[in-house]
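Quick one: structure for this chain?
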Amino acid sequence: MAFTVAGQRRICTDFPNGNDYLVVGEINHHYWGIARRHYALAMEYRRLGSSGMYVSEITYGNWITHGSQVEQDAAAKCVRAALDSGITTFDTADVYAGTKAEVVLGKALKGVRRESYELLTKVYWPTGPGKNDRGLSRKHIMESVHASLKRLQTDHIDLYQFHRFDYETPLEESLRAFDDLIAQGKVNYIGFSEWRSEEIRAALKIQDEKGYSRFVSSQPQYSMLWRVIESEVDPVCKANGIGQIVWSPIAQGALTGKYLPGKKPPAGSRATDKKGGANMISRWIRDEVLTAVQNLKPIADQVDLSLAQLAVAWVLQNPNVSSAIIGASKPAQIKENVKASGVKLSPEIMRDIDRVLGNLPERDSSKTVSPKPRA
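Got it. Here's what it folds into:
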């Protein structure tokens, strides 16, 4: 039996009284909160690497939104829209919006059954002015995890991640601190973001030799235009049971099609927001790239997707991608992008995308970098 909520089809699995129901239309949040535990959602889920934990194919991330572009009430609406769309995975970091992003997310998730979602955060970047307010020393990790738990209003983090590689801290020190957090029950799983293949191998060697808990996730930038993980990082991760939770699948918005060749960026867009990622997207605001993106439109139309949905669906075709992170300042953006979940693109469509983009995608693995010296 199936029912529809907010335009999405739901499949009945096991309603508590044993009856089948067909519900079409809106369900208020009280009843939807009950119903969603007994129905398989249209959202699809994947195992995170070799772990036993599943994550939603779409992760809601609050980098450069919560605490900066989006305030508490709007953030709560976005989080509710994410939950109603079947998203169970939420990604943040202690450094986002100067620690305010964790606070906003914690408040937005307050009252939601803790076991019903996966909470991800990260540590490395400076969260204060001191020399020890940064990096992956045991001191900073232990202080940061307690601060994150308080801001997020929870007693545990499902996935705690090294936000970059720290060249100033012995790797064994950082890994032992993470292993201790798992032993203490404050963290369930561990991962890293933007590490090079040799750094991943070095860490796995120590984890195996010391008997520490292994990494289960990698969080790299990955999109049609940014493919630097494909030659080295992704193969190492795949061979070692490490799933990818990728960020910026729509290339900071460049793959949405709203930026046109020969035209100024739309007012209020990310490309015009110096505090909201304008520097990152600037590399793609070139006529040759924007023309190619417009040439992807017929391919998107062919599979009945928007350009943004096509971009998110594209990264999910990689079987080692566990989830794609989307950001949103409005609930409507979430509702649109989650439609990429479950989409299967044919080999012909994938080849057509490659043909249109040609040599524009960045593939150089050396582009994966961490600050040296430490940030």
